[in-house]
């Protein structure tokens, strides 16, 4: 399967069955056990990253690009904490949901939500974040995405991906992530050394790392900072 097909498939998935599924997972309503486990794992990733941001004590000065923002699980708390947040996602439905959630919390113009493929994003941001998006793309395409995101990052790029070491576990369980007709959506794991090499080639050096593992959710997060 080539990259364009992957992208079309991902967009369609997150505008249809994937939207219904992930909106629930990234919400607080009733879900099944697998979804609850994924919700818990994802929240841990978000909380770890919020802790990193807060530890730096400069959130109010930051412009942050949340590429592949989903329903705003990270963008919204970042905006609430004072950062200026530009949120974009390839899925119109996810963006709409993100906007609604922000407005329901009294946030009007920040975050700014836009429907956009991360590879067409432009501008400069202090920090670019891309959480749990690269799982939808093969490593070669993910590398091009990382290079583009790095070109937007003045100071640092923070991304998360499913590490290849968990391959067997994930493959065994992947059917539970994407059951039924949506099963055609692939899930790709990446070798950390491949991701680090791409980051280094972009002049970024890994500073902080984290790993979230639950039964059904695996996410390795890297903060890569521009070298002086
Ligand atoms: N980053 C969010 C979070 O952690 O809450 C959402 C993660 S969700 C698993 C993956 C998201 O990536 C979906 O909302 C999907 O629409 C989006 N996405 C996938 N490919 C994308 C692309 N090429 N450009 C922008 N968004 C993309």
UniProtKB/TrEMBL annotation:
The record's annotation in Pfam families points to: Mg-por_mtran_C
Which UniProt keywords are listed? Methyltransferase, Transferase
Q: What PROSITE patterns does the database record attribute to this sequence?
A: SAM_MT_MG_PIX
Please name the InterPro entries in this protein's record: Mg_prot_MeTrfase, Mg_prot_MeTrfase_C, SAM-dependent_MTases_sf
GO biological-process terms attached to the record = chlorophyll biosynthetic process; methylation
| GO MF annotations in UniProt | magnesium protoporphyrin IX methyltransferase activity
So what EC number does this one have?
Answer: 2.1.1.11
Annotated Magnesium-protoporphyrin IX methyltransferase C-terminal domain ranges read 130-226
Which PANTHER family does UniProt cross-reference here?
Answer: MAGNESIUM PROTOPORPHYRIN IX METHYLTRANSFERASE, CHLOROPLASTIC-RELATED, METHYLTRANSFERASE
Q: What name has this protein been given in UniProt?
A: Magnesium protoporphyrin IX methyltransferase
Q: What is the lineage of its organism?
A: Bacteria, Bacillati, Cyanobacteriota, Cyanophyceae, Leptolyngbyales
